Amino acid sequence: MTSTVSSAATKSVFRRFVDSPAGPKTIHFWAPAMKWCLVFAGIGDLQRPAENLSLTQNLSLMLTGLIWSRYSMVITPKNYSLFAVNLFVFGTSAVQMGRIVKYRQSEEYQKHKLLEEKQA
């Protein structure tokens, strides 16, 4: 018993991280790590014109980020990396939603919509 306690106390911070329930030996680490690609894609989409963005796609990403942020704080062990990445997914999607809504309220969008209706 004493050897277990003393060995746990002498482990390095890195070793404790590697061996933790949410460390790199588990899916709890790799799933959020890969999900950062969604955040980077959302940031990359900030360069795209708002008329080329999908309202439904960004709405679903925003809701996914919100739901999984909550879930990451309820599960055991609490997964702070999952919380962080989903908070960023929510944030980037919310910004994109704002851009889309602003574009769809603009005169440019209204004119484009009328022109399409006349051609149909």
Helix content: over 70%
Strand count, sense and barrel status of the largest sheet are: none
By DSSP, the count of extended strands is 0
Tertiary shape? elongated
Span of the ends, CA to CA = 80 Å
β-strand percent reads under 5%
Which structural class is indicated by helix and strand composition? Answer: mainly alpha
The count of helical stretches stands at 6
Oligomer: single chain
Give the ordered list of helices and strands: HHHHHH
Q: Which regions are unreliable across 5 or more consecutive residues at pLDDT < 50?
A: none
Q: What's the pLDDT, averaged over the residues?
A: 89
What is the C-alpha radius of gyration, as a whole number of Å? 22 Å
Layout of secondary structure:
Layout: H1 2-10, H2 13-19, H3 27-44, H4 55-74, H5 80-104, H6 107-119
Helix pairs in contact: 3-5, 4-5
Textual characterization of the structure:
- With 120 residues, the chain is mostly helical.
- The model has no long low-confidence stretch (mean pLDDT 89).
- The relative contact order is 0.12.
- The radius of gyration is 22 Å and the shape is elongated.
- Helices cover 77% and strands 0% of the residues.
List the keywords.
single chain, 120 residues, mainly alpha, 77% helix
Offer a quick outline of the entry:
The protein is mainly α. The chain has helices spanning 2-10, 13-19, 27-44, 55-74, 80-104, 107-119. The chain contains 6 helices and no strands.
